[in-house]
Amino acid sequence: MYRISVSPHIHSKDNIATIMWTVVIALIPALLASIYFFGPRAFWLEMASVITAVVTEAISQKLLGRKITIYDGSAVITGLLVAFNMPPNVPFYVPIVATFFAIGIVKQLFGGLGYNIFNPALAGRVFVMFAWLPAMTTWNQPLDPKWLANFSLFKFNIDTVTTATPLAIVKAKGTSELISQFGTKINLYKDLFIGKCGGCIGETSALAILIGALFLFARRIISWHIPLSYIGTVFILTFISGQDPIFHLLAGGLFLGAFFMATDYVTTPVTKKGMIIFGIGCGLITVLLRLKGGPPEGVSFSILFMNALSPLIDRLVKQKVFGVKK
Amino acid sequence: MWYLGLKIRTFRAGGVKPKEHKEITADKEIVNFHIPQKVIIPLLQHTGKPAKPVVKKGDIVSEAQLIGEKDGKISANVHSSIPGRVVDIGNYPVLNNLKTPCIVIKLEGEFKIGAPPKDDWERLDRKEILKRIEDAGIVGMGGAAFPTDVKYSPPPDKKVDTLIINGVECEPYLTTDYRLMLEKTDEILEGIKIAKKILNVEKVFIGIELNKKKAIKKFKESIPVKENIFVVPLKVKYPQGAEKQLIKAILDREVPSGGLPFDVGVIVSNVATIYAIREAVLYKKPLIERVITVTGKIVKNPGNYKIRIGTPISDIIQEVGVTENIGKIIIGGPMMGISVSTADIPVTKGTSGILFLSEKEAKKVNYSNFKACIHCAKCVFVCPMGLNPSMLSILGEMEKWDDMTKFNILDCIECGSCSFVCPAQRPIVQFIKTGKVFLKFRKER
Questions:
Q1: By residue range, what is the domain housing residue B433?
Q2: What gap in Å lies between CA A217 and CA A9, rounded to an integer?
Q3: pLDDT digits over A109-123, tens only?
Q4: Is the CB of A266 less than 8 angstroms away from the CB of B374?
Q5: What's the pLDDT tens digit per position in B184-231?
Q6: Sheet architecture: strand order including B78-79
Q7: CB atoms within 10 A of CB A71
Q8: Chain A / chain B CB contacts < 8 angstroms
Q9: Do B391 and A1 touch (CB under 8 A)?
Q10: What is the ipTM of this complex?
Q11: Same domain, B129 and B277
C-alpha cells in the first residue's frame, strides 16, 4: 500500500514556523535600535516579555490540552511586540503582566493561534495601560550614544531625564515648541526618523522598522495593502487638517503599528479590498484620536478597533470572482 | 515583454510557481514501451457514461478491436490495446474509483504487420471526420477526458470562432506534450488543420509556456503562412493550462461562472488530443496508446514512453526501476494528480504522467495534522478564480456546506494553488471537493 492523500502532492517551503521566525528576524533592527537608544534596560524588558510569552504559551497550551507550539515563533513575536510598546523605565512587572494577558487570555483563551480576534500584543499593551497609566506614560530621553563606549549588558536602569513624546508635546504646547526642542524642522524629522526621541522602546526608530518591513516585503510575508492604505490615510487626513503630515508619519507608533501589527495575519482581513478598508479604517481612527482624543496617540486603539471589524469585513467584502459579472 | 517577436501573455489573477522538475525527462525522446502481457481496460476512462462491453469472456480480440461501445451521447468507445483473449469482465480498481467495470485481456495471437493506409482527409466532409473521431474513442487527453466528438459539436446557438491548442503543460514534472510538440510538430499542425475544418474557426492559437522555448521556436518555424495559426508564448505560471485561465491569457475572454469555453466562442484541445485526432482521421486508428511521462527522482530510467492503454502501473515500475522504496504513486502531475494506493491499476486515455515520490518526499506533504487557519491570505492572493479559499476551508471544516455556495465554491477549479501555499498545510482542496459532493448530493435528493 502506498501513501495516498488529496492533491496537491507538493508544497511551497513556507509554513507557520518559517513565516513567524522570519517576522522575528524582521524585528531585529528595531530591537537593536531600542537597545541603542534606551540601553540594556530595553534589552532586558524585551527578554522578560519574550520569556513570559513563551512560558505562558506553553503553560496555557498544557492546561488547555493543546499541542505545545512554542517553537513556531508566534509567541516570541508577541513578546517582542509587547516589549516594543513599553516606555523605557516601566517596571518589569508591567510587560510581564501585559505579555501574560496577551498570550494567556487574548490568544489562548480565544482558541490559540488563528482564532484570536484581537492582536494579542496590542490588547496586552492596552490592558496594562489602564492598569498602570502613570508608569505607561512616563518617558525618558534616549541615551547619549557614548554609553556604548562602556558597554555592559548588565545595567538594568535608565538614568536619563524624563521627557514627553513628540506627539504629546505637539498636543500640549503646539508644533513650534516641539521644533524649538529639536532645533530645526529638518533636525526634528531626522531625529524622529532614526529614533532619537521619547517614546516606546521599539517604536521610535522609523528607520529600523522600515528595514525590517522591507525584508518582509521582499520575502512576501506581508503585502503593501494594509501598511500603505493605513499610512496613506494618516498622511492625507493630517494634511487636510492642516497638520504636518510627515511629522505624523514619523512620530509615535504609526510605523511599528502599520508594518508589524496591522499586518498581523490572524486579526486582519484576507481579501485585498478588505485589507485596504482595514488600513483606511485604522488611519481614520488614528488621526481622529491623535487630533481630537484625550491621549496623544491612537495607533493601538485604532488597530484593535479594526480587529473587531475584520471578521465582518471578510464576510461582506468579496473580491471579483472569475467569470462572475459585478 | 516579447519572445521571438511574439507578445508574451498570461492570466492576471493569482497563480503559483512550483519547482518544475521537468529537466528529469525533458530531453528524453519518446520511446515505445514494451507490450504488456495483460491489460486491464476500463470501460469508463472518460467523462460521461461507461461504454457497454461488446465482447464476452473467452473471446479472442485483435489489436484495436472495439470492445466497449459508447453508451448514450456523452460516452466514448473503448478498444483493445493488444491482441489477445478476454479473461475477465468485472470490476477493478481504477484511479479514484475502487470499482470500475473493466475488460481484462491476456496477450495472445499476433499483431498486424505494416502501417495502415493513409487517407486523404481533405476529401472527407465534416460529418465523416467527426464520425472517425467518435469511432476511435478520442477523448481529451489533457485531464478531464471529455469525449472529443461531443466537444467538437457545440450547440448550434454557440458561435465558435477560435480554437486554442493547449501546449501549456503547467504541471511540474510532466513533459509529454513538450516531447510531442518537438517530435511531431508537423503531425500536430496537420491535426490542427483537421480540427479547424471540423469547427470552421477563423483563428487557432497554440499556447506554450516559456519553459518550452524549443517547442515555441519549432512551431513558429513550421506554421505555414496564411493558415491563421498562431503560436503564443506564455509566462510560466501555474495553472495556466487550466482552460479558463488559458482563454483569459490568450484572448482576454472570461468564461462565465458555470459556463463552458464555447460560451465565449472557444474550444480548447490539448496537443496530444490533436495528435490522436489526426491518427484517427488519417488511419482510423483508435486511441489505444498514448505518451506518458514516467518520472520522479527515484526512477532509474525516467522518460516519455508510448504506453498501451490498460498497462498496469506495476509493469511500468518493473520496466523503469526505482532506486528506493516508493512512498507515493501519483497519476498525473503533483498539483492535481491523484495518488493511488496500489500499483495494480491501469493507465488510461487521460493519464499524462506517472510520478513516483520517495517515502521522504511523500511525507513532506501531510494534511493529516493541519493547523488552524491563520488568515495569512496567501491562498486568496494565489487563487486564479478570485475565490476566498481561507473562508471555504473554514466553512468546510465546520461542515457549513450551504454557506460555501455563498463563497462561490462551485467556481473552484481545484487547481490546488491554495493548498500549495497554505502555511498551516490545510487540505483546502479536500474541504472544497467534499463540499461539492455534499451540495450535489443534497440537490439530487
A1: 378-444
A2: 28
A3: 999 999 999 999 999
A4: yes
A5: 999 999 999 999 999 999 899 999 999 999 999 999 999 988 889 999
A6: B52-53, B66-69, B78-79
A7: 12
A8: 167
A9: no
A10: 0.92
A11: yes
